[in-house]
Amino acid sequence: MHRSSSLAQLRFFILIPEFRGLGLGRLLMDCFMKFLQEANYRAAFLWTTNEQIQAASLYRHYGFRLTEQKESGIFGKLLIEQRYDFQL
Fold first, then answer.
1. Residues 71, 61, 82: CA angle, nearest 5 degrees
2. Which CATH number fits domain 22-87: 3.40.50.970, 3.40.630.30, 3.20.20.70, 2.60.40.3230?
3. Angle, to 10 degrees, between the axis of helix 24-38 and the axis of helix 53-61?
């Protein structure tokens, strides 16, 4: 999602369980990172939860850094929402 002239938000990065572990997450992240450069974004961010351990590992692999955490019950149970930011 476009947030400003230099900032993008990655939203709804979801793979159903049957397609996990096939390298599709990395392929999608490669496409996203290429898009950021081609669209001249300077930064990107995303929100996830503390339960998404593998996803967070993927984000960190691509240079995203955990910048914020907050408790949330938005998904019907208590979780820690986590914001990850990336700077080009």
1. 10
2. 3.40.630.30
3. 40
CA atoms lying within 13 Å on the CB side of residue 16: 1
Where exactly are the structural domains of the chain? 22-87
Per-residue confidence at 2, pLDDT binned at 50, 70, 90? low
- How confident is the model at residue 13, as a pLDDT? 85
Give the Cα separation of 5 and 28 in Å (integer).
22
CB under 8 Å to 9, separation ≥6 — which residues? 1, 3, 44, 45, 46
Written as one letter, the residue type at 9 is Q
| pLDDT for 1 beyond 70 | no
Mean pLDDT of 55-71: 97
